[in-house]
Design a protein that fits this description.
Layout lengths: L1 E10 L2 E11 L4 E5 L6 H8 L7 E6 L2 E2 L4 H6 L1 E4 L11 H11 L6 H12 L14 H13 L5 E5 L7 H14 L4 E5 L3 H7 L2 E6 L2 E7 L3 H5 L4 E7 L2 H9 L4 E11 L2 E8 L6 H11 L3 E6 L4 H10 L7 H7 L30
Parallel strand pairs: 3-8, 3-9, 6-7, 7-8
Antiparallel strand pairs: 1-2, 1-4, 4-5, 9-10, 11-13, 11-14, 12-13
Helix pairs in contact: 4-5
Keywords: ATP-binding, Nucleotide-binding, Transport
Family: Belongs to the ABC transporter superfamily.
Pfam families: ABC_tran (PF00005)
């Protein structure tokens, strides 16, 4: 659905994006993670056609953003970090305006009413945007992104500044939208990405440093794979028996946690799943199992590791490309003369 190849963006001598490449399949909710200034917004602005790249290629639905910009833009609904809302309009007036601006062919009244019901703003349909809460303004911003029923939604920090209840509501809405749209969710709130996204792409200092499934990325990139076992058993015998299980690299006691109850750290081989043989061992010995938890890196630990060094966990092929001494050749004659800040490129009122 979306394919980004060797995307590079320079602002004068500053390299904001360095040969970023990824592919997103149709119907996927992808979290786009990175610290402030990592290049997230720059990447999304290039994908939406708002910024030009120094080099590289972006295609959406098989169409190039350079060759067919208008066609590609019609396939994308974009919610920037600051929603492009006109405060002196009512919700109805604003959505009608965006409908005309996007030259949508769907029946106006029916289409906009369906969107309002979906994002739950039909109860504020005739109110001034200036009088809405932050949460409702975010919903109106998402509504404008949905006009024209684009197959791709790009949401930049959609829950920033919201209270916990509003955050939960927006997350639920994004999950609902993911049933019929490909969604790219940019955020640095890790719990949000973990709750909503099926896949995570991490960018740091303009380079892609990790890409994988949300549930397995931390496990796949962890240098160690550990379980923490708590059981009622003789300490030394428990450690000895667990150490002899197939797939176990090392086991050592973490001490007595309750009378007669010991905790053991178990390091396993990368592809080994020792939970079943471990349970069988304890059952045969009549040692009650009181707790068993995975001690791999959390998503937060992983994020800190990925963003604390420049090229941590970088795929080998991209590592090699980034060491290429040849300089990028700009596609646009004036691109390298752009002196605006890469961390916060200027946003217009209407991204589409």
């Amino acid at each position: 659905m979306i394919e980004v190849k060797n995307l590079t963006k320079r602002y004068g001598q500053n390299l904001a994006l360095d040969r970023v490449s990824f592919t997103i399949q149709e119907g996927t909710i992808v979290g786009f993670l990175g610290p402030n200034g990592a290049g997230k917004s720059t990447t999304m602005n290039i994908v939406t056609g708002y910024l030009s790249a120094t080099s590289g290629e972006v295609t959406v639905g098989g169409k190039s953003i350079l060759e067919d910009p208008n066609l590609v833009k019609r396939q994308i609904g974009y919610l920037p970090e600051q929603p492009p809302l006109y405060q002196d309009m009512t919700v109805k007036e604003y959505l009608y305006f965006m409908y005309e601006l996007k030259k949508t062919k769907l029946p106006r009244e029916k289409h906009i009413k369906e969107i309002c019901r979906l994002v739950k703003i039909d109860n504020v349909y005739n109110r001034l945007i200036a009088n809405l809460s932050k949460g409702y303004k975010q919903r109106v911003g998402i509504a404008q992104a949905l006009i024209g029923n684009p197959p791709v939604l790009i949401l930049d920090e959609p829950t920033v500044g919201l209270d916990p209840k509003q955050i939960i509501e927006i997350r639920a809405l994004i999950k609902t939208l993911g049933r019929n749209h490909t969604v790219i969710l940019s955020s640095h709130i890790l719990s949000e990405v973990q709750a909503v996204c099926e896949r995570i792409i991490v960018i740091n200092n303009g380079r892609l440093v990790a890409d994988g499934a949300t549930d397995t990325l931390a496990h796949d990139l962890s240098p160690e794979h550990r379980l923490t076992l708590r059981a009622e058993a003789p300490e030394q015998e428990l450690v000895q028996q667990v150490s002899q299980l197939p797939g176990v690299v090392e086991a050592f006691s973490l001490g007595e946690k309750e009378p007669g109850v010991y905790e053991v750290s178990v390091e396993t081989e990368p592809d080994a799943d020792v939970r079943r043989p471990l349970f069988s061992l304890l059952a045969q010995r009549n040692w009650p199992l009181l707790a068993l938890k995975n001690s791999d890196l959390t998503l937060e630990d992983l994020f800190l590791r990925l963003t604390s060094t420049d090229a941590a966990y970088l795929p080998e092929e991209q590592e090699a490309a980034s060491l290429d001494p040849e300089q990028d050749q700009g596609q646009d004659g004036d691109t390298d003369q752009d002196t605006s800040s890469p961390e916060a490129p200027e946003k217009g009122e209407n991204e589409q």
